[in-house]
């Protein structure tokens, strides 16, 4: 059976590295912890000392409600939830419908996807006060933090101005000052100050440069056979061998979340041949087990996509095993 190994040593390394920039971390564990497994990752984050996380929806929040002091839901319902849940306010309309007492205001500083606009801020603050919501946090999200260019700093400056305005409002209204957060992974080492909390996702899982990979996927061999010279293998025989070789069939396919490929794919220690099947793929050589990838930053080069996309689609059906290692093999 194929197994996903979660490298605790590397996860902790990444958390340590983020902590050296700002120790106040709201860990993003949305979408099954970027495909790693939300329960396994939550246990490890809790063990490390993480107190706050972000999830996608109420279902994910309910899964991890026992693990953390605060769970920020990016796309929440309108009805009341648990006391350690915080609901993101994505629009004025939603703020009007909301009945949960603990909120974070999301500000649209330029992403143009979600959040309160600058010219809606006064109305939002008045509404929040009138409805007696507790404003736990205020945040915004960068659209271009992984590029060079000035968008990030324009958004950042806008957010600082909004921060001042909100702090002033809260002081005048004798309300608790919320905490402010804006830095995703790519912004961690770009900003002059990362504000009260940082909000990284992919860096925790080692899907960008400078951080160590947490997930590796290992497959079992189902059968081994010989492919003769001038013989093809797999659907439509897109691979034709020009020599007699041994081939092994692995027990993972595109149904498990591996991106579809038509003409082979580079794995860690061998190559996949021809087309990937739903539940299988064929590789060159004779093996008992094959590591499909142990660093998604390398594996992604096979495909026209991003590391996030590969990680997040790894099937929840594959069993997860936590490992600890200082072996440089994993570095
Ligand atoms: C997904 C997400 C993050 C994390 O982004 P990374 O690029 O993975 O660090 C942070 N904030 C919001 C609002 C998000 O949706």
Automatic annotation (TrEMBL):
Keyword Isomerase appears in the UniProt entry: yes
Keyword field: Isomerase, Pyridoxal phosphate
Entry-linked Pfam families: Ala_racemase_C (PF00842), Ala_racemase_N (PF01168)
EC identifiers of the protein: 5.1.1.1
MF terms in GO: alanine racemase activity
SUPFAM superfamilies xref list: Alanine racemase C-terminal domain-like, PLP-binding barrel
Necessary cofactors: pyridoxal 5'-phosphate
SMART domains on file: Ala_racemase_C
Domain Alanine racemase C-terminal: 214-323
Isomerase recorded as keyword: yes
Transmembrane segments: none
Stored Gene3D superfamilies: Alanine racemase, Lyase, Ornithine Decarboxylase, Chain A, domain 1
Enzyme class: isomerase
NCBIfam families: PRK00053.2-2 (NF000791)
PANTHER family assigned: ALANINE RACEMASE, ALANINE RACEMASE, CATABOLIC-RELATED
Protein name as annotated: Alanine racemase
Organism: Caminibacter mediatlanticus TB-2
